[in-house]
Amino acid sequence: MARKKAYLEEEVIEKAMLLFWRKGYESTSMQMLEQEMGINKFSIYSSFGSKHGVFLESLKSYKKKVNGIFEKFKNSTNGVEGIKEFFYESINICHQDGNQKGCLISNTYNEFSETEDELVKGEMTSFMDNLKTLLIAKLSMDGTKDEKTIMKQANFLLLAKHGLATASRVNSPQEIEDYIEITFKNL
Amino acid sequence: MARKKAYLEEEVIEKAMLLFWRKGYESTSMQMLEQEMGINKFSIYSSFGSKHGVFLESLKSYKKKVNGIFEKFKNSTNGVEGIKEFFYESINICHQDGNQKGCLISNTYNEFSETEDELVKGEMTSFMDNLKTLLIAKLSMDGTKDEKTIMKQANFLLLAKHGLATASRVNSPQEIEDYIEITFKNL
DNA sequence: TCAATAACTAAACGATTGTTTAGTTATTTT
DNA sequence: AAAATAACTAAACAATCGTTTAGTTATTGA
After folding, report:
1. Per-domain residue ranges for chain B?
2. What is the fold of B7-64?
3. Residue A11: which H helix or E strand, with range?
4. pLDDT tens-place string over residues A96-148
5. Nearest-5° angle of CA A74, CA A79, CA A85?
6. What residues of chain A, 14 to 33, have a C-beta less than 8 Å from chain B?
7. Which residue's alpha carbon is at the shortest distance from the C1' of C6?
8. What letters, b where the CB count within 10 A reaches 16 and e where it falls short, cover A92-116?
9. N or C: which end of chain A has fewer CB within 10 A?
């Protein structure tokens, strides 16, 4: 055939993801992406079609990153304690490398909430829906709570998780620690 | 002297604020501001110097808007119950006019957290610090809690308030209602 | 070895960003 | 009424945005 690609798409997307994670979508330019991904615009466009395409692939890459702790949470059998562990592990990812860049999913959720980008928003919504279903399952595990309580607590935790991810960009570790402790005190 | 201004700066800033509130800073263009404020670029620049200047004035305008409920909270004498009322009134502002645009302060906090804009970030931080001081005062009111507990609960509520304001853009009223209910059950 | 083909470089694309400026209109004071 | 002055209109500014395209380089299969 012809010349081979001098880069692996998976690798350059990982780099793009890290940039989007730090800066958000709108504030990241193609110029920055060129530099960070180490390939030029032509290559970016021939591999991913558009800036939007790079972003969607970056979201996939991030999901792979969190998939480990998500699977572990899915397989946990210790109810509320499993949820708490999941929260702590999620926060650890947010603080990775000493950064405070939050969670890419939550950041994206916030940034795109007022846009018309139904594709990205759909990705976010499905993620939240999956999390809610999982929370309900874990809360039901010990069999002591009625359905109404379970639904309320699931909504509470869903919002807490999103708020926590967002807050991890600006709040101190102590504030976050205190928040988690009290959140799980009465469940 | 000479010709009079055909607009009131206070009025056009109110309109700019509503636009920033809806779209955020970066996604709002001068073209949009012209249209929304009803005056042209020259007038905007002669009155406020720059887009950044318009934004800072808009933040002031928003603070005036929330100042009422903030003062009421400051003067409340019923401890935790006063905090809860303050939370509900804050959420009502977020959902004003049937919109779901969150709280401009929290939105700005999120959008600017990774920028170098120390001016805007300073405004946000001082706002949060004031809130924290106030929360500590209200939590101390009944005199039953030790200092350590008070600090933890203040951190918890600070994060809850920010998370709530952020979540109000994307979560349903039911989810928010459930969140507040359980949040205050844990105190 | 050589035509075929895909990946590369680099420059330019039109559109839009925030900002400025030249020229016109309206109001004020003497 | 006329000179002075500030607010207005509208066009253009340079810079940057995401995207495309023409031309070159490297690798492939025949």
Report:
1. 7-64, 76-187
2. Arc Repressor Mutant, subunit A (1.10.10)
3. helix A9-23
4. 777 778 999 999 998 998 889 999 999 999 999 999 999 999 999 989 999 99
5. 70
6. 22-24, 26-27
7. A2
8. ebbeeeeebbbbbbbbbbbbbbbee
9. N
